[in-house]
Amino acid sequence: MPDSAKTRPSQADAEAAVRTLIEWAGDDPDREGLLETPKRVAKAYRELFQGYEADPRDYLQRTFEEVGGYDELVLMRDIPVVSFCEHHMLPFLGRAHVGYLPASRVVGISKLARVVHGFARRLQIQEKLTAEIAEAICDILKPKGVGVVIVSEHSCMTMRGVNTPGTRLTTSHLLGEVRDDPRTRQEFFDLVRGVG
Predict the structure, then answer these.
(1) Catalytic residues, which ones?
(2) Considering only CA atoms, which of 116, 130, 113, 119 is closest in space to residue 169?
(3) Contact 102, 71 (CB under 8 A)
(4) Most exposed among 51, 59, 142, 193, judged by the fewest C-beta atoms under 10 Å?
């Protein structure tokens, strides 16, 4: 947990900050429709940023070695990503595709989704999120290779600024044989695209 979490502001502090933002936007936080909004926003933010509450790498600790000789790519596609841009605190939404080439053990498939969700529920940029997921899998599982691709739409581009709805950012982070072996790399990207 980051050092800043040790001195986290209280629920009341968070609610006061939301009241200030409502006033700054030009509305009255004491009007009927907004009376409970500071409480609701603080509660929503606690849920949306739950990635700070635990280390997502812990989800990868329990593995299985009885894999029956399986040594091909393991790929989970279309894991929902909900994260927040650290520059504007606006959401980016998309899908992650996570694969690894096991060396001697595998992890329960739900754990791959939990790792994605754990890292996503923090303020950050998509490039960092992609790398964090791949490196956690590589460090903990010690596979022959890892590949992570994330495709998402960023509200900071679609709702404001350049105002380009429908544009998507694609990032990838490849390690080991998924990066270095052309056949494995191609197989990984074919599986991500749903080919084969």
Answers:
(1) 85-88, 126, 154, 156
(2) 130
(3) yes
(4) 193
